[in-house]
User: Fold Polyamine aminopropyltransferase from Desulfurobacterium thermolithotrophum.
Amino acid sequence: MLWFTEYYSGEGMDLKGTGLTIKVKNALTTKTPFQEILLLDTEDFGKMLVLDGAIQTTEKDEFIYHEMIVHPALFTLGRKPERVLVIGGGDGGTVREVIKHNPEKVELVEIDREVVEFAKRELPSISCALDDERVELIFDDGREYIKGKENLYDIIIVDCSDPIGPSRVLYEEEFYKDAFKALKDDGIFVTQSESPFAQNRVHKKVVKELQKVFSIVRPYFAFIPTYPSGMWSFTIGSKILDPLTVNPEKLLGKVSNLEKSAGKLKYYNSQIHYGAFAVPNFIYEEE
Amino acid sequence: MLWFTEYYSGEGMDLKGTGLTIKVKNALTTKTPFQEILLLDTEDFGKMLVLDGAIQTTEKDEFIYHEMIVHPALFTLGRKPERVLVIGGGDGGTVREVIKHNPEKVELVEIDREVVEFAKRELPSISCALDDERVELIFDDGREYIKGKENLYDIIIVDCSDPIGPSRVLYEEEFYKDAFKALKDDGIFVTQSESPFAQNRVHKKVVKELQKVFSIVRPYFAFIPTYPSGMWSFTIGSKILDPLTVNPEKLLGKVSNLEKSAGKLKYYNSQIHYGAFAVPNFIYEEE
Assistant:
């Protein structure tokens, strides 16, 4: 019997002796210039994508991460998005959710071409929107790609891995400043911001750095069973639009319209839109 | 190096090949007539209480479970509670949170006396309120204890283990009917109701059975990193008082008063009071 265990460790991780262990039916590995890709076929979570030993996404619970990194910001925008930039997210799940908002164009900037090719081949239910004609795939370093861009995007989404290796620069104030410039006047930035339970210092640093750049900064939370501790966060940085002051009735109508054309969402709804922003006390307690 | 792994299995568990593995510094075991008690000293979670192989509580994250099983119902009551009944919860954490509301009397009905004695000795930060003079310890079967009682309690809290063995009867309509009768006219019932992700059918059954008995039934959710999937639920059954219609300003004042006398809460606050009731779509999706 084959078991895969992700032992939580590495920079920024508060847990030192904890892991999630999962029974595996089949395993496929490949090495790219950037990382080791592991595809596991599991009993409980379906196919599971693991990069450098860290679970990235699984067929069973990916809908939570991908819906929650996309819909709070996109529904806060309150209008049809013209141009959306996704940094990271090579599996395509984030783009799949963005497409439901019917944008004119989505640019996906992924550093590792092989992740995209791998996801297209092995994870079609997640990568399905990558072939959409409105999606441009750019194989580049997202940190470099955004430099010098001004007033271009309605939404920028950072769907990155932990702050180790190439993703480290996506957690820094200088990057957030460039993202701010690349956004339109009512633009919204959103990034995954690690586990407030298992990576508390990293999470708080993201929020703090974003507060130096954006006037409205809103962390929010979702249950992601295959990520460390199961408690995950995302953080919105916004110029003028506040997710908390979205009109509830209008939101209800917009969600209903999206579901009519794109199918039922599985996690996000208008209750979750507000409820996810409720902050448990311990996260920002003084040390 | 010693590691403890809880493999998720047993009746009602949807996961079949998943576990949480935790590094252990020291272990202490004992057997009672009802179950096997294991006390682990861990690097990441401090002391950890395990009953029959299932993690019950840890020093590091117990505050989430215990605050969340108590405060939503107690703050919904909106007045000083006279008499509170806790079924299960032999570690004392639930009673500790109830005591913060300054009740006249708390009855703890725990089937296994040795769990209480063990917690008093080994987990003082959790069991600390069990010696309070307003607390009566009753070593009995909670299912039997409640039969025939009428109009006695302001609040009944079911802090039980999974629906295997002695706890099974605490998941059934007949028990909820007896609890309804034992409550006063404005009384509130609350039970832990398993993981909506990992034990979806059991969770939904609790909600459904409660709906047969109580006119107001409200499931709510919290992050509990050491429970299966990290996504946990509680469900309130209420006669007339609805947690969702509690006046936000009054609630804010009441929480502030409680914290002045009992110390800062670590998870619950007035945002969480409403936000925790936001229901992700997938939980009650038709199959």
In short: The longest strand of chain B covers residues 18-31. Chain B has two domains: 2-57, 62-284. The radius of gyration of chain B is 18 Å. The domain at 2-57 of chain B is CATH 2.30.140.10 (Spermidine Synthase; Chain: A, domain 2).
